[in-house]
Every structure is written in C-alpha cells, then in structure tokens.
Specification:
By secondary structure, the protein is an all-alpha fold. The protein has one domain. It is built from 11 helices and 2 strands. α6 crosses α11. The longest helix has 21 residues. It is globular. It starts with a helix and ends with a strand.
C-alpha cells in the first residue's frame, strides 16, 4: 500500500515529534538544548500525547502476534540497502520548512558519530541501519505501530513507560492472563522469549538477525526500550546474558540521541564507504 504525499508527511512529522519527545525526556545525552527541539514552541502541533494514547490502547499481546505473523515472513519487498534508504527518504516532504535532513542524512549522522569515536565497523553499520525499519510506514502501518518507546506485551505494563495512564484503555490491562508482573512469561526467561510492542525496532532486528553480531542485534531490537535501558523496569524478565548485552544498548543510546545536528553529511562522498561496509556483512538484496 503506497501512501499519499499527505500521509507520508504525517508519518515523517510523527517520527520527528517522537524523537524530540525522547530528547526532551533525556536531555543529558543530547547535544541540543530543549528550546531547539522542533514543535515545542507550538504545542498545538505536538501530538505526542495522542500518539501514545493510541499506542498504549492498541499494542496488545494479540495485536503483536498478528503483526509478527503479517510482517516477519519478510515477503513485502526486495531491495538493496541503498534502495531501502532511498525508499525511506520518500517520507520527507521538501515543502516543509521544518525538515532539515532526509532519512539518509539522519542515519549518516548517527553512524558517522559512532565512526568518529573509533568503534568497530559492525557498530558503525548498526548505527546506519537502526531506523531502517521505519519503512513500515510506507507499507501503510499507522505511526503508533512504527515508532514510539517499546515495551513488553503479555505482562503488566510498567508505570515507568511514558504516559502509563493511557494503558487503562488497553484490554490486556483487564485480562488476568496478561496483567500480572510476569503474565505469560517466567521469571528471568530472557528477552528473546518476550514479545515486544510492534514497531521498527523489532522489524529491523528480524531483517538483520542473520547478518550482524549479537551486540548489534541487541542495539537494533531494543534501542527504543527506554523503560528498561533508562528505568530498569523489566529486570525480572531479563537473563544474565540480556544484562551483559544491554551494556551495548546503553553505548548505542548516546548515538541514537545524537540526531539532528546542524552539520549535513556529504551523502555522495560517504556512500562508497557504506556500500563497501554493507557488502562485508549484508547480502546484496534484503528482504522486507
């Protein structure tokens, strides 16, 4: 399902608002000041609360299982990495004066910051890939099922998740199978056995799960799981191995919040480097 230009702009704006909301909540890791964030001087356009109201109402255990079945066969589209990045770029509306960077530049800002700090090449590639799952928007998925903080479903929702009051409208809150601390899971069962709310993190993880080191896969899968890597709210589900891997998620989080610096990466100059890097780890054609 191809989106209209208006729908593409709405999807892009929602991503921008969510990212600004995250930056506002965790300013100590941002290179920007809160007054620089897009839309915060114009509350009438800040739809983050409405976004999370829908997200928290509809992200049920059953919904997640349906989306996993619908998308994880990875039979929607075949693209090279750069084709996928350019496909994602169609979310940008050049007529919007508030949009300074397309998706390629946003991804490159993250990966180039990682590269500048001397991290391994797989870490650099992970930074470049981390938001590629947002192509879900171009398959007609609503914003609340693409971006936003992620959290486990199938168990009690933590009150440390952003806007926890909106979970009162989620039917799982009233379902005795899902509204206890452990719900359908066992204590310290490990996150690989836990179903996360549906969105671009889980999607890009499955696209890349056979191609990147485990540390990078944890970064992809849990980079929006703020209730854990910021609030430590789900220790009861995590294994010892999860905790070890989350040290890498924490390292990545700083770079994830690096977005929207004013310097524009030189895409054409950098493209050969990233194409060579991708060829080291990824197949020529990716399945989405």
């Amino acid at each position: 399902m191809e989106l209209s230009e208006e729908e593409k702009k709405e999807a892009h704006d929602m991503m921008e608002l969510w990212e600004d909301n995250v930056l506002a909540r965790y300013p100590e890791q941002s290179k920007k000041q809160k007054e620089d964030f897009r839309n915060y001087d114009n509350p009438t356009r800040d739809t983050v609360r409405e976004f999370y109201k829908q997200n928290h109402q509809y992200q049920t255990y059953g919904f997640v299982l349906e989306k996993e079945k619908e998308f994880l066969a990875l039979d929607r589209k075949k693209m090279t990495l750069w084709e996928a990045v350019e496909y994602l770029n169609t979310l940008v509306d050049d007529s919007d004066p508030g949009i300074d960077l397309d998706q390629t530049q946003h991804l490159l800002q993250t990966s180039e910051a990682i590269r500048a700090d001397g991290h391994p090449d797989w870490f650099i590639l992970t930074g470049f890939l981390h938001d590629l799952g947002k192509v879900l928007c171009l398959f007609g998925e609503p914003q609340w099922a693409v971006v936003g903080d992620t959290f486990p479903v199938g168990c009690k929702f933590s009150d440390k998740i952003v806007y926890p009051e909106f979970f009162k409208s989620n039917p799982d809150t009233q379902d005795e199978r899902f509204n206890t601390l452990l719900g359908v899971y066992e204590e310290h069962c490990g996150l690989n056995n836990v179903h996360m709310s549906w969105g671009h993190d889980e999607y890009i993880y499955h696209i890349m799960k056979d191609h990147l080191p485990e540390e990078g896969l944890y970064m992809l899968r849990y980079h929006s799981f703020y209730a854990q890597h910021r609030e430590k709210s789900y220790d009861h589900l995590m294994s010892k191995h999860d905790h070890e891997m989350f040290e890498w998620v924490q390292k990545f989080n700083v770079y994830d919040l690096y977005t929207k610096a004013p310097e524009r990466p030189d895409v054409e100059k950098l493209r050969p480097y990233y194409e060579d890097l991708a060829s080291k780890y990824l197949p020529d054609v990716l399945r989405f």
